[in-house]
Amino acid sequence: MSAAIVGASPGGDSPPDPTASGRRHFETLAMVCLAGPAASRRCRQGSAPGWRRYRTGDEVLAHHEAAHGVCGHLLGRYVWELTIIEDRTVKVQKTSFSAGHAWSGDTPEPPSERPRRERAETDFRRAAEASRILSIIEPPFGWRSTLRIVRRMRAQANALVDANWRSIMALAEELLRQRELDQEQIARFLKDETRGSYWRTRSQEGGGT
Ligand SMILES: [Zn+2]
């Protein structure tokens, strides 16, 4: 996935407390990042514990990118583009290439300049960075706190993927067919899901963290 962590403003109906809106922003980033790997894992799960389901690389990738899209939308982001078309000019880490891409952000319109995929970091590294920033907002500080937040973000991302698995599967199927979806196609597909509904549900439940 691709999203600028620094300099982006929190989207949606942000609460007035700057700490709360900052926290929501970085929680969103961490969860959107972690939703991809969560979906890659989940789509290979078999029907019984211990069983693995065979999936092609494209199928895994489509679920991965679709989860970035669906979860991003539910967390209040605008999803501008999803693709599973490999870009061999873009290296991720040392050995693998950027196979897919999910592009989303806080504004209805994408920025005029596309982010170059070669600056793509891995989802885990981005989630860890967002968690580190959250640990500065949320005392107690330090690496133990970061680790605790990483675990919490992972659990929340897993729960979000589980709760919305049908939508993720449907979008993944569409992505497999088309290979690339633009903002309009994605919006059409997610029309029944309310953007940012994750946070509304959370505040109704009275959950602060
Ligand atoms: Zn990803």
Descriptive overview:
It is a single chain. The chain contains seven helices and five strands; from the N terminus they run ααββββαααβαα. The chain has one domain (18-205). Mean pLDDT is 84; it is low at 1-15. It has 209 residues and is mainly alpha-helical. It has a three-stranded antiparallel sheet. Strands 2-3 form a two-stranded antiparallel ribbon. It has helices at 18-42, 57-74, 123-137, 143-163, 165-178, 183-189, 197-205; strands at 78-83, 87-92, 96-98, 101-105, 180-182. It is 52% helix and 11% strand. The structure holds zinc ion.
In what range is the share of β-strand residues? 5-15%
Class from secondary-structure proportions:
mainly alpha
* Amount of helix: 40-55%
> How many strand units?
5
Overall geometric form = globular
Bound chemical compounds: zinc ion
Compute the number of structural domains: 1
First CA to last CA: what distance? 24 Å
Give the low-pLDDT segments: 1-15
Mean of residue pLDDT values: 84
H/E series, N to C? HHEEEEHHHEHH
Report a brief summary of the structure.
This protein is mostly helical and 209 residues long. It has one domain (18-205).
